[in-house]
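Repro case for the chain-ordering regression, as requested:
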Amino acid sequence: MTLRFDKLGVVIAVIVAYAAFFASFATFRANRIVPGQARPILEALPPTLGMLLLTIVIVCGIVALLKTPLILRLAASVAALVALTILIGVAGGFLTPAGNTFARIAPASGFWLLIFAFTLLLADVLTRLNLSPWSRVGVLVLAALAIAALLVSGSWDSLSILKEYASRADSFWAEASKHVTLALGSLAGAMIVGIPLGILCHRVEKLRAAVLNVLNIIQTIPSIALFGLLIAPLGWVSVHVPGAAAIGVRGIGTAPAFVALFLYSLLPVVANTVVGLAGVPRAANDAARGMGMTDRQRLFDVEFPLAFPVILTGIRIVLVQNIGLATIAALIGGGGFGVFVFQGVGQTAMDLVLLGALPTVALAFAAAIILDAVIEMTATMRRVGTA
Amino acid sequence: MKAWLPTLLRLAVLALLVVFITSPGWFEPLLKPLTENGAPAIYNQGSLLTLTLQHLRTVLIATVAATTVAVALAILVTRPAGAEFLPLSRSLVNIGQTFPPVAVLALAVPAVGFGEKPTLIALFLYGLLPIFENALTALTTLPGNVMEAARGAGMTGWQRLMKVELPLSTPVILGGIRLSVVISLATATIGSTVAAKTLGEVIIAGLISNNLAYVLQGGLIVAALAVLIYDGLSAIERYAARRMGQGGE
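-- result from build under test --
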């Protein structure tokens, strides 16, 4: 039997070897803002666990390097990821001197590289398995449950990012709900206005170019400027329109952030509605007309269902983009995870930056996977329906 | 009469932009009503011209780097030797696009420190995706008969790539670069939250001191740059498409 190498495996093995032997696994800092000291795997963990982790990582690296069956690669990537995520928590407890509440233990470059390498392996396996939309969502739920279990069990409590969380647990959930409300609320607003506007643009050709041009130009205004520019008009509305202040319209805070996100969301929704409706086959429309359907029936029973996957693609773009952009709302007092990111940048406390950035990335990632699955399902349903 | 109207409009925007960033003082009376308590109407902590040039320089460096890497990667995964990486690279591109620019920027700071570097990294990573996606689409959807003809004419793999595949893909790749540049122009302003010298500095100074005139001038300069560069690149794209015999839009 000859050994054959997997091309991607070579890349993964190189990263794993570097991360395991030359990079540091965890960083020890005497308090939250001083520079840290690097600790490699064998110094960051009790000797037996350190050897165990090295062995697991090397074995899984070899599985990746050689041409091995998919199921073995899947097992290896999952095993390595589970070992890494559990043992980084152990390292936190091991490195913290007893009774010291100022010391901070953070995962270091070696840990992140190992996570990256084995996630790459897992992503490759999952891509090659060609999972159905439902199973992809299932994998996502499993991963979310595993992370939630680790968080609830308290095995990560000694890590710096969770220490930052512990001192702001209340505000974390308040900002989280603000973040989600901003992203989803502006999306809902954009759908309520954008889809009818898109239908109108599809029907009235003269309107199309004008509306799309204006929306295109709005997209070019940098987000921090658009947020800022809305402060003045909304402040004016809050003072002069009766009742506006009562429902929370103010110059600074959530209102300008909401309006800015709404404006950015309009282009993908309107443009995709127009493209989706334009892509409806003539034959379908002719048949509907021939059956004596009214314009209204045709819109709701024929055109709209056929255009739906394309419109959903626009909604996916908007949701992922809004989850990211909502971080900037913090600059104008709109709240959201950006509060932690910008506070962290201001205090050069990187754990605080991570506390804001990691949930944002996780939310955007989950939203993308779920909506991709939904899009694929509606698209296949349509194909089956018209075949 | 109608055909030259958009061109004239663009030239007017360009002229206005150049005049504004070289002698912003002329526009002071226009912006004065937006300020309160006698605050200055024109950004005075640095020259707008220098900031604009630095902004463009940051975007240019990031885009050139992103284009080189993205096109090279796309060529690699479309060769027989790299075909194994094709599905994975597609999913990585999809995953990469979900990372918010602010998060990339903030996470780059601990690795490289404050200033221009984290901005360049964020712009580079963010700019990679649209270019890679377009390059991949272009290289995988080349007309089969043309490729057959090139092979039949006895061209080697390298000759086919340089003389047939890349020239035919140029318009679509340019489209990716255009998207990437427009995103980068706006994203670069966020770089000023980590102390990069870009036009974002003007906007942030306005947000901090509650000076609407600063926010407006910073925002409008970036928007005008984006619109002009977008149009300019679209024109180059159409020219390239015509040269490839793909006949414009």
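Ordering looks correct now. Chain B is about 75% helix and 0% strand.
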